[in-house]
Amino acid sequence: MPWKNQGGGPWGSGPKGPWGNGPQPVGPRPPDLEDLLRRGQDRLQQIMPGGYFSGIGITLIVLLIVAFWLLSGFFRVQSEELGVVLRFGKHVRTVQPGLNYHLPYPIETVLLPKALRVSTISIGMTLIEDPARRGRSIRDVPEESLMLTGDENIVDVDFTVLWRIKPDGVGDFLFNIQNPEGTVKAVAESAMREVIGRSQIQPILTGARTQTESTVQDLMQKALDSYGAGILISQVQMQKVDPPAQVIDAFRDVQAAQADLVRVQNEAETYANQVVPQARGRAAQILQAAEGYKEQAVAEAKGQSARFLKVYDEYRKAPDVTRERIYLETMERVLGGADKLVYDGGPSGQGVVPYLPLNELTTKRPPAAGQQSSGGNR
Predict the structure, then answer these.
(1) Among 70, 152, 158, 194, which is 20 to 30 Å from 210 by CA?
(2) In 3D, which of 170, 161, 160, 155 has the Cα closest to residue 116?
(3) pLDDT in tens, 194-232
(4) What pTM did the predictor assign?
(5) Tell me: the pLDDT tens digits for 8-52?
(6) Of residues 333 and 286, which shows the higher confidence score?
(7) Residue 375 clears pLDDT 60, i.e. is over it
(8) Is the dihedral of CA 326, 329, 332, 333 positive or negative?
(9) ∠ at Cα 156 (189, 160), nearest 5°?
(10) Is-contact 186 178, C-beta < 8 A?
């Protein structure tokens, strides 16, 4: 029994098989490649009436190839990159980020190093993946961080180096060094060991970090410039500076003792700065009082001597009168402030009662200003 191709076979109409509906089309079918090539040939024949191998056709094909070849020279430089254009392998120019053009390959090629990005290298420590913490943790690398100081002590130094490519040294960076990161790391470790080896441990641990960082940065830059590396060292940062872990407890005790020593010295200097000026002030006061007493005594002596000379001149002129006047003045000065009872000591004085309270007969006078009376009457 012959099959009829009108219904899709002996199992019914449509694309069915003996087990049912058969395969069904899923989604749009891909375009037929032969069909696309055939259509392209037809359009090309319409453009080139003489055929592919006619003069016009060959010219158009050559022009298209040349156009595509020339357009292949356009390239884009990203924001962190610089374009280094090589002409037959020789560096001819450097272009900035953006859309640029170079002569197509093989005349010119371009390299795109990340010259504007600041890179970081850590010495003495490394970051490792920590699955327990779901992140990264810092692991110490003692073979890089342990260094010998100038006073024969060992110090553990962890530091980082920030570096970038010089804008005018991209060619040197690409062609003069093979492993930039390894070179920077080796130079950084060497420079740090040199600076630490010339320094004492105490300044390194306390206040000389800034100076050490600056010195290491200068040494690194000089070494890299001598290599022609085209690298600029932006900054050196000392992260951790400690003694080795085996002696850190004892070292901290020594540091605490030195801190106590400095504190006691500062207290002593403070006390000395307080006492010494006071003592100097009292000494100056005593000296000034002595000078005043000296001037006073000398002036009084000079005055008395001048007065004596005046009196002596008057005495030579009238000895009796002067002697009488001196006697009266002396007696007035001696007896002027005393309580006196005058009685006749002759024969008429025998009638004085022996027990007469003579001290109570005198008029009592109030004490002078500035004087306090003692227990009895004067």
Answers:
(1) 152
(2) 170
(3) 988 888 887 887 777 888 888 999 999 999 989 888 889
(4) 0.48
(5) 444 444 444 444 444 444 445 555 667 766 776 666 666 555 554
(6) 286
(7) no
(8) negative
(9) 45
(10) no
Give per-residue pLDDT as tens, 339-355. Answer: 666 666 656 555 555 55
Query: Do residues 213 and 192 touch, judged by C-beta distance below 8 A?
Result: no
